[in-house]
């Protein structure tokens, strides 16, 4: 399925990297730079054509963004700007997509989207969140642009939290924006999905089957992070989508036990010790060693997992504040603390432990001195928890790049060969990520091999006796 979203926005941190209308990202040395909106200085476009096409949705927010810039106020987060877009479209009477927006065609309209408004009205958490968002929305759009009927706003909020999708462009395993599509919202959830989705050809959500699926009614996509424990995934799904997932992953206790797993304390054993939800250790997967839940090794490991949670949360919070020289120094100090913590946990927690993964993701994403080897461990975890998916493919492409830069050409080719198989399905052979990967695999690596061979042969030439 291909579906242009009914409403969509970019994350603020990507505002200058993608066209706000078609989500196209210029490639260095090939395309011209994006043109910035001369009024708000926030939105960027490929050129006059995209700017003109976007004006209908951007007109009201443009003035508001300009005012925020002049007053040096913060720009609202992604979901508030998406809700503002929804309200603007409703005020214009737009409640459905043009026929060409979805292929195959859909009969779904804004009014047919699921809301669960009755359950939201009885949730203290959601009522509090709704009140907070309304305040932010009024401050952003102004009372003059808000619907007169309060139920319209509550209905829009309900449809946003139940139906909105994170947008991935296939080049990074993190979202670049949020959207409310109409056709693509028909698909139900599974923590182990049989279909993948990302944006292609600009801002078009493409749903792709990962395996043979009997009918469109059996298509399942993932609404949450598959690398979180079942209790966390189910809590999120219950809070936002009002159902308790009972998919294959949610019923797999061994998978959750591996998410809490430790390295075997026997340094010569390559096995791991899975742990139950109450951190009661199970036998080592290799040597069969069984520890007690009161064992000092288990208690220390549980303490380290709590330490990871606290330090990564504190580290993330440092990036949510306005940057100052003092804050930058705090960030550097906190990164060093995370590196020290890594030295404490690397021989205790297994590479599949989700707390360990949370730590190495922070280190790898913030250019830790520990290097690209952290990305190798991330890839193994993606292979175990995600399997055949765009997320694994992206990790393999990144891994191949690190291996090329480190001169490990055989390993790099192996990584990219695995990525190629997945990318053909998840991205398609016309996707820029696939084209760039094939260039590295089929052009750059052979060239580097020739250079290595030449260097080796020159090094073998005996020196002249003269």
Automatic annotation (TrEMBL):
InterPro entries: H3K4_H4K5_MeTrfase, SET_dom_sf, TPR-like_helical_dom_sf, Znf_MYND
Record-level GO cellular component terms: nucleus
Organism superkingdom: Eukaryota
Record flagged with keyword Zinc: yes
Residues annotated as domain MYND-type: 19-62
Pfam family, one: zf-MYND
Molecular-function annotations in GO: zinc ion binding
Keywords: Metal-binding, Zinc, Zinc-finger
Entry keyword annotation includes Metal-binding: yes
Protein name from the UniProt record: MYND-type domain-containing protein
Annotated source species: Ramazzottius varieornatus
């Amino acid at each position: 399925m291909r579906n242009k979203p009914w409403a969509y926005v970019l994350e603020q941190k990507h505002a200058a990297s993608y066209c706000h209308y078609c989500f196209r990202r210029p490639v260095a040395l090939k395309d011209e730079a994006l043109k910035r909106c001369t009024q708000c200085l926030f939105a960027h476009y490929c050129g006059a054509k995209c700017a003109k096409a976007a004006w209908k949705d951007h007109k009201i927010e443009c003035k508001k963004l300009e005012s925020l810039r002049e007053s040096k106020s913060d720009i609202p987060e992604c979901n508030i700007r998406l809700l503002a877009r929804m309200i603007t479209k409703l005020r214009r009477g737009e409640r459905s997509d043009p026929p060409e927006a979805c292929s195959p065609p859909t009969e779904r309209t804004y009014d047919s989207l699921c809301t669960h408004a009755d359950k939201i009205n009885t949730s203290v958490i959601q009522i509090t969140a709704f009140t907070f968002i309304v305040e932010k929305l009024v401050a952003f759009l102004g009372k003059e642009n808000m619907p007169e009927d309060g139920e319209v706003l509550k209905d829009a909020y309900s449809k946003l939290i139940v139906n909105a999708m994170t947008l991935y462009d296939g080049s990074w395993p993190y979202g670049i924006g949020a959207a409310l599509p109409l056709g693509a919202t028909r698909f139900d959830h599974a923590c182990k999905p049989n279909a993948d989705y990302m944006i292609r050809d600009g801002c078009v959500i493409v749903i792709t089957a990962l395996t043979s699926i009997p009918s469109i009614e059996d298509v399942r996509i993932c609404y949450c992070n598959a690398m979180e424990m079942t209790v966390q995934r189910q809590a999120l799904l219950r809070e936002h989508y009002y159902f308790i997932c009972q998919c294959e992953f949610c019923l797999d206790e061994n998978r959750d036990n591996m998410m809490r797993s430790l390295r075997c304390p026997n340094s010569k054993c390559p096995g791991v010790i899975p742990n139950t939800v109450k951190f009661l250790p199970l036998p080592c997967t290799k040597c069969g060693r069984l520890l007690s839940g009161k064992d000092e090794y288990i208690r220390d490991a549980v303490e380290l997992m709590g330490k990871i949670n606290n330090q990564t949360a504190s580290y993330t919070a440092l990036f949510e504040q306005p940057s100052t020289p003092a804050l930058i120094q705090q960030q550097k100090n906190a990164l060093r603390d995370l590196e020290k913590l890594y030295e404490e946990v690397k021989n205790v927690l297994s590479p599949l432990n989700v707390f360990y993964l949370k730590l190495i993701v922070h280190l790898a994403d913030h250019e830790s001195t520990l290097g690209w080897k952290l990305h190798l461990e991330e890839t193994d975890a993606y292979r175990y928890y995600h399997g055949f998916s765009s997320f694994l493919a992206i990790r393999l492409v990144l891994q191949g790049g690190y291996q090329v830069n480190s001169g490990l050409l055989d390993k790099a080719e192996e990584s990219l060969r695995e990525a190629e198989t997945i990318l053909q399905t998840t991205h398609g052979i016309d996707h820029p990520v696939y084209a760039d990967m094939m260039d590295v695999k089929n052009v750059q690596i052979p060239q580097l091999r020739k250079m290595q061979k030449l260097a080796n042969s020159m090094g073998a030439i005996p020196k002249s006796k003269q």
